[in-house]
Amino acid sequence: MIVKEPSIGDASSSCLRQATYGLSCSRRDFLRSAAGMVLGGASPFLYAGSARTRKVIVVTFGGGARDQETFAPAGQENIPHLLKELIPQASFFTQVVNRGILGHYVATASLATGVYETLNNFSSVPPEHPTVFEYFRKDLKRPPKDAWVVAPSNGFSRIGESESRRYGPGWGAQVILPKHLLLAAMSGGTIDYEHLLRDNYETPLFAPQLGGSEFEFQQMETILKLSVGDFRSHAKTLSSPDELSVYVVQQLMQQQAPSLIWVTMHDIDVAHTGAYSLYVESVRRTDRLCAELWRIVQNNPEYAGNTTMVILPDFGRDSDEEAGGNGFQHHRTGDPSSRTTWMMALGAGVREGMIYDHPVQSTDLVPTLGSMMGFQASIAQGRPIQELF
Q1: What CATH number does residue 243 fall under?
Q2: pTM of the model
Q3: Which of 106, 193, 262, 375 has the fewest beta carbons closer than 10 A?
Q4: Which burial class, exposed, middle or buried, applies to 99 when counting CB atoms under 10 A from its CB (0-12, 13-18, 19+)?
């Protein structure tokens, strides 16, 4: 499937741009009035520390969330931590456009490569183009333990390393799938943990089978320094896969202190079941977990003061007005509500309380991380966002 950007002269494209900018303005005006943020210009803000000591955590606000349940007046109660704790400390970009395929794996792969990938969203294949992890490790000669992906969905198992011959084998990120760890720890008894093991809400027939193996035991014991019993006991106290992911990230930070961590949140994907209450509950949980992760950063001496955290959705969800969509339930129409999202960055090197409403693309993330950390994203299609480096 090839994604073609509409031509500038196309009337429908003009309408799309107007609607997209309308969403951006709505977010901008709300944040300026409610959070006291300042509309920023184009001047860059330079990081005073060394790029080699800087750490970056990327959090995808995964599963797609609309303004109706977040930044619109009726939805603001669902994101109190973003609005009151994180955004006042952040630079916030109101208009991030995804022009690629709106599937969770393929969209996240596009975020991680800086190229709109065209792979089958439900296939177990690596991205075609080099990932941010390969650029980071090869260009800066970083060891394998310095780049990690924590992904709750089994379908993300191959996102850490591309099939690019210039990078590819040996230069990617190590991937931890918390559900694999949990299944390995269960030794076949999953009845108390089924709520943590559900893998795919969109197309269950295509969901890969979960599996636990000796490899997962090694990750628990050698990488995370956790016994099987401790992991199993803590998992029993959690209510969702994303909570399990944040727990794994915390252990990874404590034991390995990697410089580049990528966390994919996925609870919001429950919207595909059509249960609006569960969708809203997952938006609130993701909001809480983003704030919890930032507190973990601040309380870890390896990360406090030298870490930049970037949070952005992979895409949105359909509006209620589109005849071809299903509103909050899916992300199929490609309308502005499903393609136009936001991004926030906070921490080291980031200006606080700033808001930017000029358009950026999802593919701009990887080149921006390269400018932050000192590597070249040579094959990425996007451009560095100069306000963030």
Answers
A1: 3.40.720.10
A2: 0.88
A3: 193
A4: middle
